[in-house]
Amino acid sequence: MTSDVNGCIAEAGCFKGGGTAKLSIVASVLNRQLVVFDSFQGLSPNTEPHEANIFGDSIKGRFRTGEFRASLDEVYDSVRMFGGITACRFVEGWFQDTLPRFKGPIAGLYLDVDLASSTATCLKYLYPLISHGGLMYSQDGDFPLVIDIFADHQFWNTQVGCSRPEIVGLGRSKMLKIVKPSCSTDQCTSEVDQ
Question: Which helix H or strand E contains 25, and what residues bound it?
């Protein structure tokens, strides 16, 4: 991330705050705020039929309502102990309630939300706020239902409001990466996966 890319670092989905602590150190070094979005109630109610990841490992039954729950106090304590708490701002609530109110800009976005529905909500509301040249990572790239969201050209056009960008690792890697194109229109985005 270069210093000319404007905005905060945002994390959606933090569980117990291990990754948040690391990102808070990065935010501190870069003199940026880390905005952490989480329900702090675990996964939202869902009926997504997850079976196996792209590597053949079973994930059936792994994403139940309330799974991966940690309290805000628990996350706060983890970051205070192992990270840079002064760089953090915590936004508590379900993504569909909190993300539409957030105005950005975002220089870097990290998604760890597990569900296809949560991924769609995050992309819809947060991807448009990423500054040109900004970065987005998702660590859920090994879940077929999440891959379907990232790969869906119609979703990008109608819900996100732009052409689908180049997505490094799509369908092949747990970690997905997008560098938001540095042009003013979405016509310069690539439709080719790397």
Answer: helix 18-29
| Overall pTM > 0.85 | yes
The verdict on residue 76 lying in a domain is yes
193 located within any domain = no
pLDDT per residue as tens digits for the range 75-106: 999 999 999 999 999 999 999 999 999 998 99
Across 136-151, b (16+ Cβ under 10 Å) vs e yields bbbbbbbbebbbebbe
Give the SS3 label for residue 9. Answer: strand
CATH number at residue 76: 3.40.50.150
Higher pLDDT, 126 or 194: 126
* Total number of domains constituting the chain: 1
3-state secondary structure at position 91:
strand
Domain that holds residue 75: 8-188
Question: What's the helix, strand, coil split of the chain in %, to 5?
Answer: 35, 20, 45
